[in-house]
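Let us work through a complete example step by step.
Step 1: write down the sequence.
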Amino acid sequence: MSGLPVIYHADYVTPLPAGHRFPMPKFKRLCDRLLHDGVISPEQIYPPGRPVTDWIKFVHQPEYVLAYCEGTLTPQAQRRIGLPWSPGLVQRTCTAVGGTILTAKLALQQGLACNTAGGTHHAFPDYGSGFCIFNDLAIAARVLQHQGLAQRLLVVDLDVHQGDGTAWIFQQDPSVFTFSMHCEVNFPRLKQTSDLDVPLAEGTGDEDYLWQLRHHLPGLLAQVQPDLVLYDAGADTHKDDRLGKLAMTNTGIFERDRYVLETCVRAGYPVACVIGGGYGSDMEALIYRHSLLHRAASQVYGRYC
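Step 2: predict the structure and record it as tokens.
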């Protein structure tokens, strides 16, 4: 292994109805930026495939999986997701789930791996929400458990929005500990109960954010002692994020990601990373914010893995 394993996703482009706003394609552009800047090299890239449909059903109800894949969801269910259905989006959605599963398996082998997509933590067993269709974090956890690769997992969700779907899925399951640190007044309006929720005030910046993280993470690792950490590194905590409401800078986000990865890996806990949310009109700035996870991971991998 020549360096940090990185899972690459292309963006599937399909025609959209006139006037419909679709989250900006960024997965391929993120990988291109990482290659251009020398953060990764081509031999570190692993293209994922679609997962076995039964794996998705470890988390999601079969009726929902079938309806989404065949495009027969009700208009109300489709509006709740917030994305227009298309065969290309089905392909992208399933491939992203496959990418997170592959990321988790590579992290167990190598100590650390990163996805260039993933983090669809608002998806519930029988419906999607907030641009999230299938919950890749939960599915990856269940696949690892089913295959006997890991039994005890810790979800560290630092997206600006609470990981409500993930919290709901594992609320009665002591084998998966869910930790969500998020903006208190942001989506979703109705929060679920994670094993540990740390709600942050609107406008929280780097210093206070990092203090909270440093206060909680080491103790969680000692308490949970996971076989694997699933890390949702949402870039929507940035001060310029269109849907964020926090006030972190690029420097703060990089330090957050570096701290999470270094703290886990130094203690012997492998980490599988997904990029989570990020929204903005300046695509290049947004791509750079997402790349901070991979830049931090490359440093930590080179030092400890």
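Step 3: interpret the result. DSSP finds ten helices and eight strands in the chain.
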